[in-house]
Amino acid sequence: MGQGNGNAPPHARDKRGEFLKGHPPIFKHSVDPLQADDWLSAIERQLEIAQCDDKEKVLYASGQLQGATLDWWDSFCFGRTEANPITWAEFRSAFCTHHVPVGLMKLKKEFLALKQRSMTVAEYRDKFIQLSRYAPTEVDEDGKRQERFMEGLNDGLQYQLLSHTFANFQQLVDKALVIENKRRQMEDKKRKFQGQ
Length: 196
What we know:
By secondary structure, this protein is mainly alpha-helical.
């Protein structure tokens, strides 16, 4: 049965191949907790795409470690007394404990002190979004997110936006970008006029 009816046996998926096809990053070592957190997020995305189970997640992710981080992982495995296999939750927790938390409070403080200064609105927005994940309670509601973003904008831009109410964070950012662009155009015209 099965041979003559045209039904091929079910094909086993190559999850490791699918995982590697997404070019998951290698992690050697970093003193920047953002890089460690970014690595973990990228790895988790690839593991989800490949639909890996718990054991495969630990195996494939640890296979992307090199250098000092691989030494840390080997030491972690060697020092473990449990007979049960390491779960993904355990790997994730150990990785974050070792690579992320030292700078976590520093990053939260950096987010809380973030100001636009010489950045463009787009650069400020990107930095704001990048650092906001380290202060989730500060931006867990759209209103709080808008308020925090507005506080960091330069005074002139902040002044122009204060009289408006925005339905969501993205509308605030869009309006700030439009005002910044218009200001730039006006400054260019003024420079050309003064140059004549």
